[in-house]
Design a protein that fits this description.
- The protein is α/β, with parallel strands linked by helices and 291 residues long.
- The chain has one domain: TIM Barrel (Alpha-Beta Barrel).
- Helices cover 41% and strands 16% of the residues.
- It has eleven helices and ten strands.
- The chain has helices spanning 29-41, 57-68, 87-101, 120-132, 146-159, 182-189, 219-222, 227-230, 233-249, 253-262, 277-286; strands spanning 3-5, 12-14, 16-19, 46-48, 76-81, 106-111, 136-142, 164-168, 192-195, 269-273.
- The strands form two sheets. Strands 3-4-5-6-7-8-9-10 form an eight-stranded parallel beta barrel, surrounded by five helices. The chain has a two-stranded antiparallel sheet with strand order 1-2.
- β4, α2 and β5 (76-81) form a beta-alpha-beta unit.
- The two termini are 18 Å apart.
């Protein structure tokens, strides 16, 4: 699998990253460990988790696997701290993540999303201290707008604080807002970009219709807030075009949607979730599509 530089971090990551959000929440421990083994054999070198995934279960499973995988060069691990982004909560969350992941130093720590209440400067100061203390190597943010990221970078530059180095936005055929300003900013500032939800929480698989019910257990059932992004006139128009291209080429819709994201410039890695090893196979096959 192709390996790419993650911005200016010095880290090399696979073009396909494994999103571990399902671990301990939608799939059990044994299945999660099997998927991690399969991902490693397939050349995946980026694993993404978060303190919030399964209330820590995802990190615990990943930590168990890291402790027993026996790999000479272990994958890069990216985790996140969720609001409230107060200094006290950030420190406590990082300590808990280090313990669950069985890592003395976190490779990449992301702020999971902006906090509309907590002031950002104290948060950036404590993140800087965590880097200085050797508990975190690189910092970043998930779900931050270009304007929010610009503000953070300016504060860090002015104060001489450890800098944001990685961003993790949503990106797929329907959700393309980052092309306007976030991707240009990351290119200008040398930030690594790792995107998620290449299938639009399953919308781009083709199993949904404008007037159809949401199947129980699907991502839109578990996280109904995703629906407003995709269940729109524009979303279903794109879905129709994708289905037509699938019929014309004989290539599954899933692979076409994944391949589109893999081909976009400025992206270091694309996170793919999995409930079975077969889900990862779809991504591996899509990465081979060059047209």
């Amino acid at each position: 699998m192709q390996q790419r530089q993650l911005g200016q971090t010095g880290l090399s990551v696979s073009s396909i990253g494994l999103g571990c959000v399902t671990f301990g929440r939608e799939i059990d421990r044994r299945t999660s460990l099997d998927i991690l083994d399969y991902a490693a054999r397939s050349g995946v070198s980026l694993l993404d988790t978060a303190a919030a995934y399964g209330d820590g279960a995802s990190e615990e499973i990943l930590g168990e696997w890291l402790g027993g995988c026996g790999l000479r060069n272990r994958p890069v691990v990216m985790t996140k701290v969720a609001p409230p982004l107060t200094p006290e909560h950030v420190v406590a969350s990082v300590e808990a993540s280090r313990r669950r992941l069985r890592l003395n130093c976190l490779d990449v720590l992301l702020l999971h999303q902006p906090d509309p209440i907590a002031p950002i400067e104290p948060t950036l100061e404590v993140l800087n201290q965590l880097v200085r203390d050797g508990k975190v190597r690189h910092l970043g943010g998930s779900n931050f707008s270009a304007a929010q990221l610009r503000t953070i970078l300016d504060i860090q530059a002015r104060r001489g604080l450890a800098r944001m180095a990685v961003v993790q936005p949503i990106y797929n055929l329907v959700h393309r807002e980052i092309e306007t300003d976030l991707l240009p900013l990351c290119s200008q500032e040398g930030l690594g970009v790792v995107t998620y939800s290449p299938l639009g929480a399953g919308f781009l698989t083709g199993k949904y219709t404008p007037n159809g019910a949401i199947p129980p257990g699907t991502r839109f059932d578990i996280k109904p807030g995703h629906q407003s992004i995709y269940f729109s006139e524009n979303g279903f128009r794109i879905l129709t075009d994708l289905r037509s291209e699938s019929e014309r080429t004989g290539t599954p819709m899933i692979r076409l949607a994944l391949a589109w994201v893999f081909r976009q410039p400025g992206i270091a890695s694309v996170l793919v979730g999995a409930r079975t090893p077969a889900h990862l196979d779809q991504a591996l096959a899509a990465a081979e599509i060059r047209r």
